[in-house]
Write a structure and sequence with these properties.
Blueprint: H1 8-11, E1 21-25, H2 27-34, E2 39-41, E3 45-48, E4 57-61, E5 67-73, E6 79-86, H3 94-106, H4 109-112, E7 121-126, E8 135-140, E9 143-148, H5 157-168, E10 172-177, H6 179-182, E11 194-197, E12 204-208, E13 211-215, H7 230-239, E14 244-248, H8 254-261, E15 266-271, H9 274-286, H10 291-295, E16 297-302, H11 305-314, E17 319-324, H12 336-351, E18 354-364, H13 371-385, E19 389-395, E20 412-418
Length: 423
């Protein structure tokens, strides 16, 4: 099968400067780079040979003028260089990008070797953790979604897109932009544009754990679906038989659908966004041919999760499983204390809604909140509420979201058996 054509708008993006930067950094930064850390901050750069644009290649040397690493220049970010290769000198050409992608896919054999691999949704490249800092690529069946978190990738977008098509054999590519990237120069591209091949006009159908979902790859949150919570959704499905389930911050219904398919008696999904809950209802309907889904009483409620949980508790509702999967509360370091207060409040509210012997699943996707901070906030809130928790398991990212450095660890989640209250 021939490779899909790249669209003309993509081909108009300027390529990186062929002249590489010579970069010197502090001894401490050098140690971190050699140890595999993908970022060099502005204050760690001691010299740069000449001025350059975003995405130009820099060669990091040590004090003996020996090659250490290749990095992409990011002049508008505190992260001044984003490391893509450490070790020996190498050309950054089509083979380089194909090798990077193949290496990432080799680590994802659980997905690529699946008999239905061409119908699954999974992450192909996980940013810094796969040596492409500031870029992620998700696959939904035959469609790839490239999300750019840094402008350094525009000059390399043609080469990376070609390599992705070569290695994966997919039929179309969509580009998505993080907010900071969308605010800058995008070279005529808009968020959600198809940049290669063809992509159907509506959502993309894919499978997760044998269940069907539709991903809005052009305008949905993230790349169209929250793939990082896959393993936790499967776990909820495994324990949901005969249970009443509350799914707050339900988004497009991932936890809800898996709970229903797992035999839940009822699922109540809560989210602030009416369109998002409509997508959850749609995803549930996609699986209605399954007896368990057809027999599950599925209801939705639009509203602020904090307020709805208070109202549910006042009305005397209780559930066997309560899933609390909020958005990031700490976009900046200054927000961490507020985020911890929010997690504490959510734990208090959730525990009022869990039957004795039921399960609380609570997660944090705030990278600036450490695992210790998050789990301590949950356990201390439970102690203050007089509801003892027995830990079942602590989890994180699914296997297609590898973590290769400390700051890459953003997702934390826990499952706890909830004891009866005091008195």
């Amino acid at each position: 099968m021939s490779r899909p054509d790249l669209h003309r708008r993509l081909l108009r993006i300027p390529r990186p400067n062929e002249k590489r930067l010579a970069v010197r950094v502090t001894p401490d930064a050098l140690r971190h780079v050699r140890a595999g850390h993908p970022w060099v901050f502005e204050e760690s750069v001691t010299s740069v040979s000449h001025e350059a644009g975003a995405g130009d290649l820099g060669v990091i040397f040590d004090n003996d003028r020996k090659f250490v690493a290749l990095a992409l220049h990011d002049p508008d970010s505190p992260i001044r260089f984003r490391v893509i290769h450490v070790g020996r000198p190498t050309p950054v050409d089509d083979d380089f990008w194909r090798t990077t992608i193949r290496t990432a896919l080799d680590a994802r054999r659980a997905f690529t070797s699946d008999p239905d691999a061409d119908r699954l949704g999974y992450r192909v490249l996980n940013g810094e953790n796969d040596h492409v800092p500031g870029l992620v690529v998700d696959r939904y069946a035959d469609v790839l979604v490239i999300k750019l978190y840094s402008a350094v990738w525009f000059p390399h977008l043609v080469a990376v897109t070609r390599a992705l098509l070569d290695v994966t054999g997919c039929g179309g590519v969509v580009v998505r932009f993080a907010r900071n990237t969308e605010r800058g120069e995008t070279f005529g591209l808009a968020d959600g544009d198809v940049i290669a091949g063809t992509v159907p006009g509506g959502p993309i159908r894919f499978f997760e754990g044998g269940l069907q979902f539709d991903a809005d790859v052009r305008s949905g949150q993230k790349t169209g679906h929250f793939l990082d919570q896959r393993a936790n959704r499967l776990r909820v499905g495994e324990i949901a038989a005969g249970c009443d389930v509350l799914d707050v911050f339900a988004s497009t219904g991932g936890f809800s659908v898996h709970a229903a398919a797992g035999g839940a008696s009822s699922v109540h999904a809560v989210d602030l966004s009416a369109p998002t809950l409509a997508a959850a209802e749609h995803n549930m309907a996609l699986n209605a041919e399954l007896d368990a889904v057809a027999q599950c009483a599925f209801t939705t409620e639009v509203g602020d999760a904090f307020e709805v949980m208070v109202q549910l508790a006042r009305a005397g509702h209780v559930y066997d499983i309560v899933v609390v999967d909020p958005p990031s509360f700490a976009q900046r370091q200054a927000n961490v204390e507020g985020a911890l207060r929010a997690y504490t409040r959510l734990t208090h509210l959730a525990l009022r809604l869990v039957r004795p012997g039921g399960v609380l699943m609570q997660a944090s996707c705030s990278s600036r909140v450490t695992a210790d901070q998050f789990f301590t906030s949950v356990l201390e809130a439970a102690e203050a509420a007089g509801r003892p928790l027995r830990e079942i398991v602590r989890t994180g990212h699914d296997s297609d979201h590898p973590v290769g450095f400390k700051e890459g660890q953003y997702l934390k989640a826990g499952f706890w058996k909830v004891g009866p209250g005091r008195g």
